[in-house]
Specification:
With 456 residues, the protein is mainly α. The protein folds into two domains: 376 residues, no CATH class; 70 residues, Serine Threonine Protein Phosphatase 5, Tetratricopeptide repeat. It is built from 23 helices and no strands.
Amino acid sequence: MFRKAGIVPFALLLAVLAAYGNALHGAFQFDDYNVIVNSGAVHSLAAWYADVTHGLRPLLKLSYTLNWLSGPDVPGFHLFNICVHFLNVLLIYALASRLFAHSFDHDPQRKHWVALFAALLFAVHPANTEAVTYISGRSMSLMTLFYLAAFLAYIKGREESKAVWLYAVSPALFILAVATKETAVTLPFALLLWEICYAPTISLKSIVRRQGMHWAVFLLLALLLLFNDRYWRLMAFSAGLHSVRENFLTQLHAMTYLFGQLVLPWRLNIDPDLPVITAWNQVWLDGMLWLMLLAVAGWNLRKRPWLSFALGWFVLQLFPLYVFLPRLDVANDRQLYLAGWAMLLPVAVACAELAANTGLRNTAAAALLLALAGLTLARNEVYRSELALWEDTVRSSPHKARPYNNLGYACFLAGNLAQAEQAYLTAIKLNPDYWRAENNLAQLQNNKGIISAAEE
C-alpha cells in the first residue's frame, strides 16, 4: 500500500495538519518583532534589495518580505512555516527510503513502513515546534528544506550517475541553504558522512571528483562570510565569549541536553538556562555517553549503516561548528530540527522490530504518534500569546533573568502593571547588571506615575 501514488504524501499531509492546525492562531513572539514586525528591511522588495548587499540571510529575509507584502497578518506567516515543514517531511521520507534501501531485504514491506513511520515521527514531534510554530524559527526550517534537498540531490546523482544532480542541482541548493542560514556550511561534511556509511568502497579521488563542486562552493561562501563586515563582527564577538576549551565542554553538555529534549519532549523551553561549562568534572557523564554512542556508530558501520549515519549526523549538526563559533544562547530546541530527524530512524526501526514480533506494530506506532501529536498541539497553544509563552518559560527557567524581563514586557502590554513590575524586579534580582530590565522597570514606573497624576 505504501507504493500507491498519493497515499504517502496524503498521510504525511494529514499528520502535519493534525499536529499544527492550531498553530495558525499563534502570535508574533520575541525575535519576530526584531526581524519582521519592526524591521523595515523586510517590508518592501526595495528595502530588502538594499539590505542584500551588506546583510545576512537574504533568502530568509526575502521569505519574510513576500509574507509581509501578501498581508502582514500572523496566520500567513504560520501557513508558510507549516508548508515548509510539510515539504521537509516529504524529504525525510525520501531520504529514509534511500537510507534503508538495502536494509530489510527479507521484508521489503517493512522497509517502506519504517521510512514512512520515521517521516511521520518527524511530522508530529513536538521538538520541531520552535522551528515551525515560532515564526522566527523559520530560519532553521527553511534552511533545512534546501539542505536536505541538496543532500538528496547528491545521493540521487551519486547512485544514478547523473552529473546534473551532482554538479549543478545539489551545489545550487547548497547555496540557497547558506543564503537562508549560514550554519548550512556543514553540508560537505554531511556528504562525507554519507560516503563513509554507504559507499561500497571509499576512494579519495572519486570523492574529490564527486564533491569538488560542493567544496568549491564551501570555500567561496566561507570567503564571502568572512569578508562581510556584519558577519565578521558577529564572529569576532562570538569567538571572544569563551575559550575553545570552554566551548567544547559547554557544547558537549548542550548536545546531551538537546538529546534529552528529543527523548523527553514535554520539557520544551524557548529560553533554556544552560551554564557555560569550565571544567571536565562537570561533564564527564556527557563525555562517557557520547563516547559510547560513537563507539556504537563505529561498531555498526557496515551492519547497520543507518544507525552509524544517524549518530554521526546528530553530532555533526550540533557540535563541531559551535565549538569554534560559540552561540550567545548555549542551545535552542530549534537546533533539533535539522539534527534530530536522523535520530528518529533508530526509533522507527526499533518500533518495527519489537512490535512486529507481537503483532502490535501498527498499534504501538499509532499510540506513539498520537502521544507526540498531542504534545505538539499543547505546545502550539503556548505560542498563542506572549503572556502564555513567557509564563511557560519562567516555569522552565526560574533562575534566568531574561524570561522574567520578557514576561514583564508581556504583562505590560496586557495592562497588568503590577505583575510586570514584579517580573522586572525578579529579573534584576537574578541579574543585577541586566540593564534591559532596569530600563523597562524605569519606563513602567514612569508610566504608572503619569497614570496616577491623570487620575488625580
